[in-house]
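Field reference: sequence -> structure
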Amino acid sequence: MSIDRRTFLKLALAAVSTPSLLASSGVQSATKTRFSAVVFDAFPVFDPRPIFGLAEQLFPGKGAELSNVWRTRQFDYQWLSALAEHYTDFWAATENSLVFAAEMLRLELSDEKRAQLMQAYLSMKAWPDVPPALSTLKQSGVRLALLSNMTSKMLNANIASAGLEDTFEAVLSTDQERSYKPAPRAYKMALDALGLQREEILFAPFAGWDAAGAKWFGYPTFWVNRLDLPPERLGVAPDAVGRNLADLVRFTSASG
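Structure field:
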């Protein structure tokens, strides 16, 4: 996901609208649902805003630009290494892309600043709407899982940081397959882990490309479009789109 200055500001200000969205969307007590499980990408659950805020703090006036180049190269490096069959995991791709971004923008990235920015990827908190939504889903008998390109170490660190221990039945890193979403075998990990059919699993991505990948694979897909971005032009659309997990809970209800 590329983050320009306008999108950066949207992300930084998202917290202003999230509580009101939660209040108005009506997360309800346990109800019958139409899916047996919901499988989340990491970023609908973990809030990355502090990472971008730290970039601005360390490089005043350059944080948005650094974040933009960093995130773009982060995914470029993942996919290029996978396609070239010279696999590099998410952590290494993230650090390498950070170094590249700083060099491209001619920013002095000291070892201390580098370590601070990388550590931020291990200490994210949950978006405000996440705990009540996950609690509602669990009370409704929905099985929960994470399926992310992050390494297992990164996922487990952020689960602990967000206080979501014992929330997810399966914590799946595509690193186990030495692959990345949107590769089909990456999405297949959830089928194998949960023992369910595609139509029984609702996939909840953060990025438009991930929504497209999940639909190509055959998952019912709810795009958690927190940044209010347009859909990717890839010839496929998610089943539904919402701004937060309260919207997702409402979508999962048997009544629709």
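Note: The CA atoms of residues 223 and 241 lie 5 Å apart.
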